[in-house]
Structure formats: C-alpha cells, structure tokens
Amino acid sequence: MRHRVPAAVVGAVLAGCAWFGAPPAWELPPPPVREGPVVDPARLHKSRLGSGLELLILEDARLPRVDLSVTLRRGAGSVPPATAGLAGFTAELLERGAGARDALALAEAVDALGASLGAGADWDSTSVSVSGLSRDLDSLLGILADVVLRPRFDAGEAKRVRSELLAALEAARDDPSTLARWNLASLLYPGHVYGAPLEGTPESVAGLDAAAARAFHARVFTASNAIFSASGDVDPAELERRVQALFGAWPAGDPPPEDPAPPSPAPTERRVRVVDVPDRGQAWIVLGHDGLARTDPERTAALLMNGVLGGGAFLSRLMTRVRAEEGLTYSVSSNFALRRRPGPFVVSTFTRVPEARRVVDLLLVELERMQSDPPGPEEFRRVQTLEAGRFALALETSAAVADSLVELSVAGLPEDSLDTYRSRIRALEPEDMAEAAERWLHPERAAIVVVGPAETLAPQLEGLGPVEIVKP
Amino acid sequence: MQGGWLRRWRSAACAFVASLAFVAAARAFEGVDDPALRTRVTRLENGLTVLSLADHTTPSVTFQVWVRVGSGDESRYTGLAHLFEHMMFRGTRRLGSEAHERLIEERGGRVNAFTSLDVTVYFEDVTAEHLPLVIELEAERLAHLDISRESLASERQVVLEERRLRTEDSPEGRAYEALRALTFRAHPYRVPPIGWRSDVEAATVEVCREFFHTYYAPNNLVIAVAGDFDEADALARIERAFGSLEPVSAIPRNPTREPEQRGERREVIHFDVKAPILAAAWHAPASGHPDSEALDAASEILSGGRSSRLYRRLVYEGQQALGVQTGYDEMERAGVFEAFASVRPDAKVARVESLLFEEIARLRDGLVSPAELEKAKRGLEVRLLAGLGTSHALAFHVASDFVLLGRVRPLAERLEAIRAVGADDVQRVARSWLRDDGRSIVQVIPPRSPAAGSAR
User: Fold this and answer.
1) Long-range CB contacts (< 8 A, 24+ apart) of A415-422?
2) Do the Cβ atoms of B41 and A1 come within 8 Å?
3) pLDDT at B449
4) Which of chain A's residues have a Cβ under 8 Å away from the Cβ of B98?
5) Which of A93, B196, B242, B301 is a good FRET partner for A165, with 20 to 30 A between their CA atoms?
6) Mean pLDDT rounded to a whole number for chain A
C-alpha cells in the first residue's frame, strides 16, 4: 500500500524550482500573518430569552458531537472567607442527584450515553457542562436542565461531598506546588476570600452543608445571571426552541451583589515564608503581589509585558535566564491572574534545594530588569507576534471559542473582544511595556514562599525580608 | 456548517504525489468520514515516511517528527533517548542554542517534544504560512545538530530538575517508576524514560553523538503533518529538506523479552505522604493484539465514569479513595494493565487493595451485564471520536497507530473491534491477563516512625 517516490522524478521537479540556492527560511522576514475573523458570524447564534438567559450557540458539524454548558456569573470569589469553597461545594453537590435521579442514577444516565458531566467553580463563575454525541442531544439537554434547575441537595450527599472535599484538601498538601500557591495567597490576601484556596480551607469547608448550598443556588442560579452555550453539530433554531422549553420558566431572579474587593496594595512590604517539607530534594518557589482586574483597560499591555518576562514561552526572559543559561530549573513562568477583582501576579518555579536562594535572586533581578531595561522594539515585536499566534492556536476548536465567548460575557467585556484582540495587540508600542512594568511589577514588596526542607532553606533566605517558617 | 473535514470526500488529485495516495476501503462511521482514510502515505527514497492529512477548515497545521527510538532502545546509559531529545533544542552548526524554539514561538507557534518507551516525538503547531520554516528547522537539526560540552552540562541539570519534579519528589512518580521496574524484570520497559539519575549524570557528548547517528536516520523517522496546508507544496518541501539525509543500514534493537511471571510481586515505598498510593499492574499484550479492545472495555467497566465499579466501591460508597483509575497501556513490544488509587488520608491502603482485587476477581468470576457492557463500549467510542478534534490530536492518533502497527488504521476497524467485544471476551481477557499470580503491587505509605519526628 505504500509507495516510493522515484528519486529521479523528485529531482526533476526540484530542478525547475526557484528554491535552489535559496537562503534558509529563518533568514527571511516572517511572512505576513493571515488574519481572518476568530468567530465565523455565520456559525454563531446569539439570543436572549425573556427571563434574561443568554444563549450562545456555535454550529460546527465536523464531528457528530456537542458540548453544552450553563454558566453563572458568580463563583468562588463571591462569598466571604468564612464560607470559602461554597461555590465549588454547591457545584459538586449538583452532580449528586437532580430531578428524578439520585446520585447513582444520574451517573448511570450520563455514562450510558458515553457522555461526560462536570460541574465546578472558578473565582468568577460557576458552571455545569455536559458533552456527548449530537444524536443524544435531547437526553444531554434533559440532564443539564435537571442538574442546573432541579438539584436535590440531599443532606446525606452533602455530608459525603464535604467529607470528600476535606480529604482532598488534606491530600493536596502532599503537592509542594499547591502548598506554595496556597501560602502565597494567604500572605497576599489575609481576611479576603482570595487568600483561601479556590476549594476552600478545612475550616470553611467543615461548615458547609446542604442548606448553604441551597442558599447559594437560590442566589446565584437565576436566569438573568446565566449563559447557556452550545457548540458542535446542532441546528441552532431547533436548539433554541428546546432551550426555551426546558429553561423558559426559570425565574429571572435578582442581580447578585458584587464580589467584595481585596485590600490593596498587597502586601505592603517584602515578606518571606518557608513551608517546611523536610523530605524533598527540590524547593518550590513562588513570589508575587497584587495584580490587576480582568476588565482593567491596561490588561493587554500588562499581558504582553508579562509575555516578555515569563508568560510561558521558551523565549521569555525568565526561561532564558533560569533554565537555558543557568540550568537551574525545568520550568519557570509568571502570570497575572485576571479575575473580577484584582487577582495576584505570580512567578513560579522550582530548583534543587541548595540553589533556592540563587533562583529567588534571579527572579527578583529579572523583575527589576523589566523596569531598568525594558523591552526594546525587537523583543517587543517577538512577543507581539507570539501572543497573536498563540491566541489563534488556542481557539482552534469551536468548544474553545464558545468557552472564550462565555468568559467574556461573565466578565462583562464587549462581545467582539476576540475579534479585536489582535488589533489591540498591534496597537501597542514598546514604550507601553516600560510603562506596564513600572505600573504592575513590584519586586520591592513581593511576598516570597519557598516550600522544602526549612533547615537548609531558611538560612539561605536571610536578608530578603522577615522570614517565617510554617508547617504544611 | 456542512462540508467540514469529516463530512466531505476530498479529491486526491494533486501534483506528483497523487499516485501515491493510500486508499483503503472501509465504511464510514455514521456519516463521519474517516481521517485515517484521507491520510496520504508517502515514502521517500531514503526511507523517510510522510503521513499527510490536509484539512482547510482548521486554522493551524501541526508538523510532527516521530523518531522510532525510545527508552526501550537504550543500552548502557538509561535516560539517553530523553536527554538527547533535550539536546535537539541546543543548536546546530548554523543556529544557536534554543534558536529553533524561539523562531517558532516568535511566529506564534507552539513547539515541544516528548520521549516515551518506544518513540521520541518533536512537534510544532503553527499557522499555515510558517510551515516552510518548520520543515527547514526540523531538517536542519537532523542534518547539522551541534552538541557541545557546555550545552550538555547545562541541559543535564535541566533534565535532573525534571526528574526531581516528576519522580523523585512526586509520590505518584515514585509509584509509577517502581511499578514498571517491578512488573518488568528483564524487558527494557522496566527503565523509566527519564532514566536513572546516575546515568543521566554520566552520559557524555560522545555517547549523545553516537546515539544520534545510530537512531536519527531517515529510515527510522515518520513525519506526520495535518491541518491547513498545501499538500503538494509541503511534500515537495519535505523531500527537498529531508531527502538528502543518509539512511542507515541497520538499527539496533534490544532483543530482551519478559520471562513469564510466576507469583505476585510487591514493593513498599516510604514517603512522607498524607494520601497513600496503591498501584498495581498485570502483564498485557503488545499493541495491535486482538484482546486490546476487550481489555479497554474491562478498564472502562472498572473505572470509566461515576457509575463504574471501582468508583462506586472505592470512592463513592466505600469512601476509601480520593480517586481510582485503570488503563490498558499498549506499547510496541509489551503491554500492561494498570490500576492506580489515591487513598484517603483517613483510610487504609490495605483495605483499598483488597477492594480493588475483589473487583478484579469479580470480572474473572462472572459475566458483565449487557447494559454494563454497552455502556463501556459507548464510552470507548465517544472518547475515540472526541480525540480527533484538533489537527495536533489527529496527526498524533494517525502517527501513533502507524508507528505501532506499521500502517494507517481505519477508524472503522477500531470501532468494529470495540463493537465486537462480548461479555465472554471481557471475562476471558480478565482470566488470561489479570491473574493474581501475575500481578505486581506498589504501595507508597508514610514511614512508620517519621524520619523527621518533629514533623508532627
């Protein structure tokens, strides 16, 4: 079944080509980037039911599949720290029985379709999603409507979920990167829910029950606070009719209150915390401070500036310095956690224990260098094209496009934001990088968390700021 | 949108490769036209195989170089295939260290690589206009790789950090590494792809160069390109860039096969964990075996979804584990059926172990119900389809089959094999492969008396 290309034929084809003797492609200027619209308007159907429920349907018949979700515009960041984790707890409980089915019957119904059901909370939203074959659309919609509108909130299931979440929180302490993130958050946002893990603390979760979940559901799960989205092999008009039938009677509800804002600036001075995990050869290092909100007008400049610093690519300054040049880590990255309220800016890496201080110093030096030696035109241009291209690749599937559109709606950003993103990137200048670094990076007051053997780490970290040692 | 890439039949008439099209007759899957059937297989004179799959409904193109060398081919230095993979990014005679990935990234592309027991895979995902650059960059490092002492010294440290991250400081990584080494006594699959620390520390520039010349030959490579690109133009460019690479006459392979296991094997690892880990493995057939789908179905019945037997027994009803996962892992020369459970901090690993083995015994002792079997098969089918959503995943799927089986496997063939599985097949494979005297067990538990007594 396989054939060989006769060399003579190929040779003949090549001989007549202009390629011969051409310089390597990397010496040529990059070809112009092709830019079509991110969202094909012919495939996107948007509407709103009388109750305020927003509908977003993206038609894509390439595979006989469908992804459905209902997203609520409030999440883990909408509760006080005493009930941290309530949004996720409620979401998990939705999967433990709804409508005519108890937890096991619901699981059976989902698995019988080869489908998957998931409910969860992020800082800004809570969502239920279900995906499967498009020929099962009716059954999938029925399950989704039950889970969103008619959860049972059974007291026994609530107890079980609470016990599982507490066990998971305890087990998560085995993971040094999780310990590092949790400890950094608690240093940055004491007294605010952003200072707790997304899943809550053992203390807050211990207090959650069916009544608390029911109350969260009543407040947040209302039609005017919800977005229904679908992508895949569906007929939009027909789907809209079915959504109307299933969700039409969902009351509009009152708009939920705004999320409480965290204190700012956070922290006010540099602090160091060592989380003592003795039996490890590697130290996890995170450092950070307050950042900016999802809707901040300067977010695009900040994201691009972060791309130069450590936005996840090999060409970032942090990867170049700490990994490629020094061989001190396998990975280092930085990011702004964009939430409804200003979330943290975090730099994260790991290295062998004896080198922890050297790496902390390098991270601080690179943060400072973003201000003292900001990106020039060449470095800026590279990150500009990197970001524009990454953006397009990340939106390869219709499901990813639909998720992004939902996220924009949750944030209250313009619905054409995906289509304007690349032009907003292009509109920036190298000078904007210097300004963003000045405005959004604060190495002088960063909180530093190092997880590993305190006995060898604590002495290394002296002189950076007050050092405290805590148990995991 | 109609006319998408799985719903249309595409004309295969283009340029000089038209006569080389791979065509197989198989029925489509419920209106889905099979990507495997639209894959064109081209073999260059020097033995290089190219799998191409054009699709203009997606905005990107993936270019993947599959090298038929993995940790299972190593001899003196374990971890060499992986360490060498890292060295492929450290420059050529014309391009500086890390220039390859920078050139891709600054054009908005994704670039990376991974090493498994059987293969080393390098990939770039870019928009179509950058494919010519990708082709030249991949060929450049195959033709002119430059391995210097300095870059090896620094990259070795990067790899050792990766080893600490994924294995030495990770309870899951420790369990996995120990389980493979316990399951395979003789076969090279006993060695972790990242290698044993002392070998990674000792490998030299000369050893890397020799490895390169032994395995990185065109007749040991498969290129997969899928997505939005001009097939004729890309094939011509590939021929031009890779066609002059010299094939090698013989590629050494390790001959060792695993002797039969007669009796349970067990290992306990002491690690400072709050959630102990239970891991178990049984020998299973190599890729392409007729029992494959029945083993997949067995795994689905055990741990696929919240109605599965193990989820219910261990997580939901038993409240003994945080999660449990089983899987049939098919490699080129051997396979394993594995089970992993994360034990709740308030539960006992011994209890989780006995519940797990009770469920394995139940699979051997009784027939699964028709409804349970249908559910498992449906889950396998839907997931097969879900794994074809991006050009990267599509190329990966087709190339992986090609490397393991030596041919492009039609989707319909796989689906029919799934659909043909009967309850008696599930019982039969459980009896022949999931035997008590052929299992290996690893427990990761806290030390009896904590090394750091002050930790309490």
Assistant:
1) A415/A46, A418/A38, A418/A39, A419/A37, A419/A38, A419/A39, A421/A38, A421/A300, A421/A388, A421/A391, A422/A35, A422/A388, A422/A391, A422/A392
2) yes
3) 60
4) 314-315, 320, 324
5) B301
6) 93
